[in-house]
Write a sequence for this structure.
């Protein structure tokens, strides 16, 4: 069976049953477990299914993927984006680093910098950044999520006290009309505070976010100064032609 036909069959089966284990799919499609796992990873990266340990479920517009899975998706693209962002940040700058696996990739890319003042609500990023002794790292207070993100009213209030040079912002989805979307209302409030407290906001996202759906609106692309991504889908290209946002494609 060709890969494209197999992928379509997987999507149809997952849509029909809601959830199927890897073993179920192996039996249905008569291929090896390794083949099914590769197929599920590809389909999950395209947001056509939701990857779970041991199987797959139909994607949701109200819930994000598991953190461990998100960290693996498009890792090489995220690293390219991170390296380009790091080139724009001078030594001695001040910046926010947001929740998300792409902002975490930026944190790693910044480790060769000197004397950065960093405020973050991302516990994973803070742990990575502490390797550089010249950095001044401040953690925002609030409610700690399982994925290391910190959100809530206390987080918004804390971030709003600052005015920093850059805001490194992640996002879960970008609609064809330029709307910036996420899954968690409380996380969106924190992102909005980062935008308002940054002299320049750098949105960092791989191309898969242009085909995803989420239910909470943060704003629109024109609210940020830069968009760093690895590829621009046709669905958003028309909007970007008239947008004020500077586009950086990290190929």
């Amino acid at each position: 069976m060709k890969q494209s036909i197999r992928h379509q069959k997987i999507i149809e089966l997952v849509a029909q049953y809601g959830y199927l284990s890897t073993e179920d799919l192996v039996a249905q499609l008569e291929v090896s477990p390794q083949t099914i796992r590769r197929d599920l990873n590809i389909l999950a990266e395209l947001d056509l299914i939701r990857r779970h340990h041991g199987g797959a479920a139909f994607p949701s517009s109200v819930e994000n993927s598991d953190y461990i899975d998100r960290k693996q998706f498009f890792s090489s693209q995220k690293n390219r984006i991170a390296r380009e962002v790091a080139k724009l940040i001078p030594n001695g700058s001040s910046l926010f680093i947001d929740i998300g696996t792409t902002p975490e990739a930026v944190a790693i890319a910044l480790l060769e910098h000197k004397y950065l003042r960093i405020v973050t609500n991302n516990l994973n990023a803070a742990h990575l950044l502490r390797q550089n002794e010249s950095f001044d790292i401040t953690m925002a207070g609030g409610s700690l999520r399982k994925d290391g993100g910190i959100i809530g009213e206390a987080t918004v209030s804390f971030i709003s006290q600052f005015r920093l040079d850059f805001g490194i912002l992640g996002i879960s989805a970008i609609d064809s009309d330029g709307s910036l979307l996420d899954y968690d209302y409380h996380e969106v409030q924190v992102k909005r505070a980062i935008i308002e407290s940054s002299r320049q906001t750098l949105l960092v996202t791989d191309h898969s976010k242009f085909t995803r759906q989420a239910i909470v609106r943060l704003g629109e692309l024109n609210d940020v100064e830069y968009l760093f991504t690895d590829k621009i889908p046709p669905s958003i290209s028309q909007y970007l032609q008239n947008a004020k946002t500077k586009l950086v494609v990290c190929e």
